[in-house]
Amino acid sequence: MDPEWQTPINDGRKLPPEVPVAVTLNGEGFAVFMATPRDLEDFAVGFAISESIVSGIKDVQSIALHEHGEEGISVNLEIDDEQFFTAVKRKRLLTGTSGCGLCGLDSIRAALRALTPLSPQPAPKTESISAMFEAMQSKQTLNDIYGGGLHAAAVCCGENILAVREDIGRHNAMDKALGAGARSGEPVDLVITTSRCSSDLVQKAVSARVGTLAVMATPSDLAVKLARENCLNLFSCNRGYSFTRYS
Q: CB under 8 Å to 16, separation ≥6 — which residues?
């Protein structure tokens, strides 16, 4: 390999790390992702909640992280047997990627899983959402270290940011943030993300029972349809300043 293509690059900056991360349930392999190796316990919990494997942190009996050298990292969640067997029915058989949260699902029907609509929640003011985006940007520590290349997501309650999480994958960043919120024990009423919004991010927000999702790009038509059907407040903004409410 040409040394110029290896990290660190010539100007001294390092590139964002990416490693295989396996999420296992009760010791059984469930899904593999390419992810940034930080906050992986949050990631596993957030993934389990946002994919409706468990209903909340109360259903996670234990979390164990195992490093496997250059082969990657695994995070095991111990959950109730009934939830485990239900999850296996829609198991992701193939390796997910950092760019697509749907790769490897058994079927298209499984990808568009049924959701339980939220109870309608009052939407936050756009000024408040804008302030959350600005606060999130100031807390993106990995983005500062690597000079970009990472998505960020944050979970908020009222006027406060509870946690900011970063990853090379937008779905991973959102799962990490949702998991951090769940583990904090604090209520979460808003999740914000730097990424575009496809339908799967709406599914994740609804499954995690978060009333409002704000993204930094125009959502897809299916994302808006799902948000309206499930009483999710959905906003997009232009770099945190100009907002459109879709549902």
A: 36, 142, 146, 149, 150, 168
